Amino acid sequence: MIAKKYNWILLDLDDTLFDYSKTEFYSLQKLCEEFFGKFNEEIYKSYGAINRKYWTAFQKDEIKIDDVKVGRFKEFADVNFPDIKTDSQILSERFIDFLSESTILLDGAIDFLDFLIDNNFKPSVITNGIRRNQLSRLKLSGTAKYFEHVIISEEVGFAKPRKEYFDYAKSKINFENERTLIIGDNIDTDIKLGQMHEVDTCWFNIIEKENHSDIKPTYEVKSFDELKSLLLKA
User: How far is CA 70 from CA 45, 90, 93, 107, 227, in A?
Assistant: First the structure.
């Protein structure tokens, strides 16, 4: 056993454990083939821009989660398939079906989770997402067993980095700020959550994005191996 600075590890899911880009591409392709008979890179990029807009609005508490789930697909269909009549509620449900069955993990994710358990860390999930989708992927991928708690923004009613989300997570997990590390790929949600509430953060930056914001992580790593080394040394 290692002597360690951190006991609680709060992990994001998408693009931290799961390969969300591949998952999203697969799910949207299946959806478009079923309802529209057409899919290409331009359609995928269009959805990505629309989806980010809705999630950003939710994170700012400008809209509710149901507005994200349905509104993004109404706009997506209106923009890309204006001549095809569809029900955005049905599109949303089918998309979540496809997301829920996709369990594409980043390379090394299981090994990292085993490392956390073997070294007596206490991992929990903190995710901005849809309950049915996130719980299904955790179960089907065999990763649910690693986590003491799974905190999902849809259940909370607020998203990272909102104070309400942090307070809810802390009440459920009962972590100590100074003994906790937040790990995630998103500067504006994961890292900002820690910065706002004086919890150390690790930016999981495997695609080596540049950070031009004033939000600064405590650490930055580009692989699970770097992350394990960090936790062994911290």
Answer: 18, 9, 9, 32, 37
Q: What is the CATH number of the domain that holds 163?
A: 3.40.50.1000
- Report the domain count for the chain: 2
Place of tokens 């309950």: 131
pLDDT of 40:
97
157-198 pLDDT tens trace: 999 999 999 999 999 999 999 999 999 999 999 999 999 999
Same domain flag for 170 and 66: no
pLDDT tens-digit profile of 8-35?
999 999 999 999 999 999 999 999 999 9
Q: Is 70 helix (H, G, I), strand (E, B) or coil?
A: helix
The residue annotated as part of the active site, out of 12, 14, 19, 185, is 12
Angle between helices 109-118 and 224-233 (to 10 degrees): 20
Which pLDDT band, with edges at 50, 70 and 90, does 234 fall under? confident
Give, rounded to a whole angstrom, the gap between the first and last alpha carbons of the chain.
14
Has 12 been annotated as catalytic? yes
What is the average per-residue pLDDT within 27-44?
Answer: 97
Q: Decide if 1 is inside a domain.
A: no
Contact 148, 123 (CB under 8 A): yes
Judgement on whether residues 60 and 96 belong to the same structural domain of the protein: yes
Nearest to 27 by CA among 107, 106, 94: 94
